[in-house]
């Protein structure tokens, strides 16, 4: 009787071990597809991906890139919408429209005195106008992680980099890089992809 019971117990244990083993193999097999990436890439700004920064004040330390009269003073650049902007220094401001390719800022209204900042009718163009996105350990098809977006401008008037904006970053199942705007909550396709952007590098499986 004891031997029969012992054999039953052993068979039960073997069955349990087989089930546990198969589940473990399934879990490992599923995890093999979830590669993670470190992101340090930049993409040309356009009317779609600039929505990652819409409504977010961007501090630019070198305000002179917008007008020499600003000198070494910082300005706050904000995009109320993808094709509009405001530029503020202290109590003075300029507003207008922005177009992409090269980023061209057209001044439609200004409270800057002549010689102290951009004036109505000025067009300020930056042939280099990029969004730099950075984040670590972003799992393809996984949860959002904390990262940053920074606006980089460069043209005839000089170069400037904005303060970084803290955003959520994620990579879709198909490899596209997305960010979530912290102010509007919009999910924005940056135009970057793990297969085409050298700044998105696999960090493990």
Structure description:
- This protein is mainly β.
- It has two domains: 1-32; 36-204, no CATH class.
- The protein is built from one helix and 14 strands, in the order αββββββββββββββ.
- The strands form two sheets. Strands 1, 8, 9, 10, 11, 12, 13 and 14 form an eight-stranded antiparallel beta sheet that branches. The protein has a six-stranded antiparallel beta sheet with strand order 2-3-4-5-6-7, with no helix packed on it.
- A hairpin with a 2-residue loop joins β3 and β4 (84-89).
Order of helices and strands: HEEEEEEEEEEEEEE
For the termini, the CA-CA separation is 51 Å
Question: What class would the helix/strand composition place it in?
Answer: mainly beta
Quaternary structure of the protein = single chain
> What is the overall silhouette?
elongated
Helix content: 10-25%
Tell me about the biggest sheet?
Answer: 8 strands, antiparallel
Proportion of strand residues: over 45%
As a whole number of angstroms, the C-alpha radius of gyration is: 26 Å
> How many separate domains make up the residues?
2
List low-confidence stretches: 13-32
Total strand segments: 14
Count the DSSP helices. Answer: 1
Mean pLDDT: 88
């Amino acid at each position: 009787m004891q031997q029969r019971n012992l054999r039953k117990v052993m068979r039960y244990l073997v069955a349990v071990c087989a089930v546990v083993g198969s589940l473990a193999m399934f879990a490992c097999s599923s995890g093999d597809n979830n590669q993670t990436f470190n992101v340090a890439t930049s993409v040309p700004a356009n009317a779609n991906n600039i929505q990652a920064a819409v409504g977010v004040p961007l501090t630019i330390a070198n305000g002179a890139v917008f007008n020499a009269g600003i000198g070494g003073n910082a300005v706050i650049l904000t995009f109320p919408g993808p094709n509009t902007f405001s530029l503020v220094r202290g109590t003075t401001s300029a507003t207008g429209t922005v177009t992409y390719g090269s980023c061209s800022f057209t001044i439609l209204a200004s409270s800057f005195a002549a010689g102290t900042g951009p004036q109505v009718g000025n067009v300020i163009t930056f042939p280099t106008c990029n969004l730099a996105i950075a984040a670590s350990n972003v799992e393809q098809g996984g949860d959002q992680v904390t990262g940053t977006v920074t606006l980089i401008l460069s043209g005839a008037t000089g170069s400037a980099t904005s303060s970084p904006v803290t955003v959520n970053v994620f990579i879709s199942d198909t490899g596209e890089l997305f960010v979530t705007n912290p102010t509007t909550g919009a999910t924005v396709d940056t135009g970057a992809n793990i297969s085409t952007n050298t700044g998105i590098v696999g960090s493990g499986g």
